[in-house]
Amino acid sequence: MKIPKIILPFLLLLLIIGCSKDSTDSGNGTPRVDKSANLKALGASANELLSDAKFTSLTIEVVYVTGFKPTDVALNNLSEFLLEHIFKPDGVKITTRAVASSNKAPFSIEEIAQVEADERSVYNAGDEIAVFLYVADGSNENDEDNKLVLGSAFRNTSIVLYGKTIEKIANNSPSTAKSDVESAVLNHEFGHLFGLVDVGSPMQVDHEDPESQAHCNVSGCLMTANIEFGGSIIDMIDNNIPELEDLCINDLVANGGR
């Protein structure tokens, strides 16, 4: 089977994790927590997130470094975005919790994965699927002058937002609210968890950007690369958070979503 190129950067990370314990045991008889379902490749849980065939509810554990809590507006916008595109009859729940800085910025994705291993407390259980969202107090190690990484969906139920970089982008545009930048990046990264573009939710019509894998080539779509990598995100927002265009929506519907 041909492995999608977008998954390749994560294989080493997954192999490292696979060599460690995939469950926890307090040693006092407390049942172990099975983590294996949340340690898969990006897009592997697209259908499970979109449909209610296996999971009827979604919990999002937001863990943020003190001082970098996402705005309430952005979290509310995320809830609306999710309910618009997924089937979860028992609802979507978002919890928030502050943690101390890891003091590791700028971050590699492996360092972010270690933060998740240290801080994540909610995993799939019963008919509830769980997503971990970490808001870091620093930047990505691969940032360049003209390309800033604002966020990354790096496993099937794992997302990181680079809070300090998002603040920098928002502060450079007095007319753009931080909550709008957060919303665009949050929704974009959940789009990747949903398997867009062609990473778990097969394309019904070819619309992948040939210059940026897993991104949409339709101008103005939420899943264009400009959202994730800074670029012209401010111009794209312009007081309106980008939405999924029809080709991306069709992919989600074909894979169990709305």
TrEMBL record:
Organism, scientific name: Gillisia hiemivivida
Protein name: Membrane metalloprotease
Residues in the signal sequence: 1-21
Keywords for the protein's UniProt record, in alphabetical order: Signal
